[in-house]
Amino acid sequence: MKxxxxxxxxxxxxxxxxxxxxxxxxxxxxxxxxxxxVRVVKVESFRYSYSPNVIVVNSGERVRIxxxxxDTEHGFKIPEINFDLKVKKGRxxxxxxTAPKPGIYEIRCSVFCGSGHKEMKGRLVVK
Length: 127
Ligand SMILES: [Cu+2]
Hints:
- This protein is about 15% helix and about 45% strand.
- It has one helix at about 1-20, and strands at about 35, 40-45, 50, 55, 60-70, 75-80, 85, 95-100, 105-110, 120-125.
- It starts with a helix and ends with a strand.
- About 20% of the residues are buried.
- The model has no long low-confidence stretch (mean pLDDT about 90).
- InterPro entries: CcO_II-like_C, Cupredoxin, EfeO_Cupredoxin, NosZ/Cyto_c_oxidase_sub2.
């Protein structure tokens, strides 16, 4: 029985590794809409996540994030590309960046917003 449990855990580990290493992003639907050549994506932040939580863009395109917050002040930071946008309630803000090379980039909150702040994350998928 123990052997079976270990085998099961082993298979799950291999599968999750395969999923995180996946580099074919063709199945992801692109986020937002193109306005004057810029991909405009509306993002709402809240304790402790983002809506949408996964943002999908094409490599090399200009991306504009229109950020708002439902509750308190939050940030929308993509450390790997040095992008950071902070927002206060009732005062939406926007910022632009050029999508980097294909890959998955972490988005995290850059303003301390409570007990779940460290887990407030999203993903930028660049295909
Ligand atoms: Cu936060």
